[in-house]
Specification:
L-amino acid transmembrane transporter activity; mainly alpha; 2 domains; AminoAcid_Transporter; 149 residues; membrane
């Protein structure tokens, strides 16, 4: 939950959520994204009440490893596609580390689909629910940028 509350905050910073101006605010003293913390904790409470803790972790681990694997693939693709791009961080032992991450991630994702098929599909479904909001906000941001130019 500690890192999860940063997700709505970062999305709000990029104006990719409804009410981004509210969600993107942080506590003056601690820097904690208050609305993000409330959102993530409410989702966690609802999921715990609907099932048990194992259900929550099984879905979360599946979705997290799916995205981690895609991230590692993106590292390989972008290094190949745009080698001249300046990067603030370089992956040590490239390409070994991303390849190990991809192999491990694929193993975990496939194992979870085989052993927890329904929970995996619920995790994918919940993730896909956010896509219409994302594309709507992308379109809205593009229209706003066109008005400014």
């Amino acid at each position: 939950m500690l890192t999860g509350m940063r997700t709505p905050y970062i999305l709000a910073q990029d104006n990719l959520l409804p009410y981004s101006n509210k969600i993107g605010k942080t506590n003056i003293h601690t820097g904690v994204p208050i609305i993000g913390a409330v959102i993530v904790n409410l989702i966690a409470i609802i999921m715990i009440l609907l099932g048990n803790f194992n259900v929550l972790t099984d879905m979360l681990v599946f979705v997290m490893w799916t995205f981690n694997t895609m991230l590692s693939i993106a590292v390989l693709v972008l290094r190949k596609r745009e080698p001249e791009l300046k990067r603030p961080f370089s992956v040590p032992w490239y390409p070994l580390i991303p390849l190990i991450s991809i192999i491990g991630g694929v193993f975990i994702v496939v194992s979870t689909i085989i052993n927890q098929f329904i929970l995996s599909m619920i995790g994918i479904g919940l993730t896909l629910l956010g896509m219409p909001i994302y594309y709507y906000k992308q379109k809205q941001n593009k229209a706003n940028n066109n008005l400014k130019n």
